[in-house]
Design a protein that fits this description.
By secondary structure, the protein is an alpha+beta fold. It has helices spanning about 25-30, 65, 75-80, 85-95, 105-115, 120-130, 140-155; strands at about 5-10, 10-15, 50, 55-60, 75.
Length: about 190
């Protein structure tokens, strides 16, 4: 059981855990970062979403050995200490959470989207947040918050020129269809 060196929320952390231990449990149980939630353990609900090198991944199925290869791991706690990230501001302004359990994962995926696309369409939002489950059904508020966050991220200059980054979604997709940020790593 070799120790793993991780950079979590900007801080170097050394953990002595089994290589196959899911990153979720390393974050929650070993490092005490409980903002990332356990929902399903099978990469189906999105509650455990974190960023590896800026890309959203499901921590419940990502082994620490894989996460240790990333230059940076960002959790909901590391997005911003004072809730000043555009997505966090928009979530508050749109009064998105009801129970709030799914929100850390939703926010992390939305943050990855607005970093790349400051003018997302409903379809872009659907792709980026696909697979996230909100049991309270606040999807319309989530969509409104993502659009508000994109406007906030764009600032007074408006959306970044060049629009969104288009990627081939893989075999069987039509030209112009996109993958979720992170190439679909879930």
């Amino acid at each position: 059981m070799p120790p793993f060196n991780l950079k979590v929320n900007g801080a170097a952390r050394r953990v002595d855990v089994p290589a196959d231990m899911p990153l979720l449990w390393v974050l929650r149980d070993t490092l005490g970062l409980t903002g990332t939630k356990f929902g399903c353990g099978e990469s189906l609900c999105g509650a455990c979403t974190v960023h590896l090198d800026g890309l959203p991944v499901r921590a419940c199925v990502t082994p620490v050995s894989e996460a240790a290869q990333a230059k940076a791991i960002t959790t909901i706690e590391g997005l911003s200490a004072d809730r000043s990230h555009p997505v966090q501001k928009a979530w508050i302004e749109e009064d998105v959470p009801q129970c709030g359990y799914c929100q850390p994962g939703m926010i992390m995926s939305a943050a990855a989207l607005v970093k790349e696309n400051t003018a997302p369409t409903d379809a872009d939002i659907d792709v980026a947040l696909g697979g996230h489950i909100c049991r309270c059904g606040t999807y319309q508020r989530i969509r409104a918050a993502v659009k508000r966050a994109a406007r906030l991220a764009a600032g007074p200059q408006g959306p970044r020129s060049g629009g969104r980054r288009r990627m081939n979604a893989g075999p069987g997709t039509k030209p112009g269809e996109t993958k979720p940020p992170g190439g679909g790593r879930r």
